[in-house]
Design a protein that fits this description.
18 helices; 23 strands; 9-stranded mixed sheet; single chain; 7-stranded parallel sheet; alpha/beta
Length: about 550
Amino acid sequence: MASKYIFVTGGVTSSLGKGIISASLAKLLQARGFSVTIQKFDPYINIDPGTLNPYEHGECFVTDDGAETDLDLGHYERFLNIPTSQANNVTTGKIYHHVITEERRGAYLGKTVQVVPHITDEIKRRLLLLGQSGEFDIVITEIGGCVGDIESLPFIESVRQLRWELPANDSVVIHLTLLPYLKAAGELKTKPTQHSVRSLSEAGVQPDILVCRSEHPIPVEMRKKIALFCNVKVNSVIESLDADTIYDVPLLMRKEKLDEQVIKKLKLTSKQELNLDTWKEFLGRLKNPTEEVHIALVGKYVELPDAYKSIIESFIHAGAQNECKVNIHTIQSEYLNRDNVYHHLHEMDAVLVAPGFGQRGFEGKLEAIRFVRENQIPFLGICLGMQCAVVEFARNVAGLTDAASTEMNPETPYPVIDLMESQKEVTEKGGTMRLGAYICELKKGTKAYSIYGKNRISERHRHRYEFNNQYLEKLEQHGMIASGINPDNGLVEVVELTNHPWFVAAQYHPELKSTVQNPHPLFVKFVKAAIHHHKTNNILVK
């Protein structure tokens, strides 16, 4: 059958959870036997979020094919357990870049290039691209930003045109709004939702379903009022209450019959009985832990949790797999030093040193790694965290006192971490790192091999600097071994210590491949090591 299209828009305010609603609906439809994918259209002019500060936009999620994308794609993958790609994230910047490039090539035959029809035609082409592949029954498109924003107008206009062009019952618009609760009045207010729907309708798009975020249950009479003034059916007014965990949302949307409303409006028939058994089992383990651990997340962007979104979610997946509650303690590496590292870390059951770029907080990460190495605390390093582990070991164990990464100190006499050869001629910042999935071969008999249980793995990367193989023999002589190597270029992907109970660091980003259905083995075994440490080591000496 031809693909059906669902468009998810938002109003009143940002951060209402369009990505989670989209992912939850997709999960429900997938559980009914449909093949589903989700794409995110972002209204900013950056080509992609790769050059954005994490404080601006949260983490940059990387796909197998090397796309630097919005963090919502991480939610899509974690919920659906299927990979996304370049085609799943489109920005205003990508649209305009394509149209301007085509204009320079003379593709428009001398016509005046305008927002309508040229920009909107390109948006529509991208909106339909995944559906035309023949792989998916349903394509869900999340439109970033808020209705009424200037930058969102071309996307809303494109949805209007597509709704007119597509056959009847081939598309549905879901509009997510806020029902604020006024404490002084003691009631929910519908006016912001009414105004939001009016703005969307004035742009020519009438929503079919309203999902109303609320801190309190929505009374039946209020649902009727919303339906009347927003021109939708009462059973198309969906309540979305705040949840204990984002993984509750599919079940909450099922209770509200969101999936039934969508299927009815798209004139579809379920391919199978709704099956959420695996999801419910995951939630059961998540909410009924038998163990509890405390893990430090040492990084430089800890003030914004979304900067490490995939890491935090990976801990949730791994915790549920181990029936363990993982308490994450974020620690700002910029303020970590030899004098206070004991205070911050001595009660931790494990420590993860997070990815990042630049000098700020680098020395604090080294101190954290020195402490966990000397005190036999389970350690996981990711990307820059792995590079920090190499620098710390080189300085404090291998006798290379001034060892450093050339990213931090270009004049270091011992560049144990250096700019990749392929990066030395690169001048542009955007989309030029080593990005996407690459093969890694693990050495038998190592911790890494036992974690994965196989010799050959594929993991996603995002970096410019690498382990300098000139120092490999020196470090291995002192007990840091390279347990994972890229077979094509010899790049060291994983290092570990031979005289430590659990000390593993990876150049790649394992967090980007962890899903509810398949928790990442590195995180699963890391949490397991934390549980063991918690049970056997309660007191550390300074």
